[in-house]
Amino acid sequence: MFCLLVLMCFGEKLDEKVIRDVETVQRKLLTSFNGLNILVFLPKLGKIIFRKKWNEFYEMRRSQESVLFPLIRARREQEKKQSEEGKSTEMVVCYVDTLLNLRLPDGRKLTEEEIMSLCSEFLNAGTDTTFTALQWIMANLVKHPHIQEKLVSEIEGVGSGSNQEERSARRGHI
Description:
Layout: H1 2-10, H2 16-36, H3 43-49, H4 51-85, H5 95-101, H6 112-143, H7 145-158, H8 164-171
């Protein structure tokens, strides 16, 4: 599911390793927020007192930059190359494309850091909502076995490659 979010964000079918790298960086950032929330306490003094935590935060940010910046830059270059060649075939517009072309009210474009932060929020928000929806679906399937049976029957009806014996075995009837 995460690969779909990455595709929507960066507009490219990326290598599995790159997707795993993006996922790892995002997961580390998300799971570390509880330990880093102390950094908002007295920010100037906190940089001295909580130097180790700040270094941990900066290291996570550098990891995120090393993974996301190349994807943003590649998309920018692809867009630039296509416009220079004057190709009439348009790229599929992704989230990064909209951010690269966005002009703020003061007339400036977003910086790479701002684009990276927005992409990170996009990926985290998409992951969280999808995960929550799947949890609710599974909880309701467990709570309502008759709906679960109906779903299994419907899936079996669509799965044309399975024979009756295999379906019965999966349902525990053999």
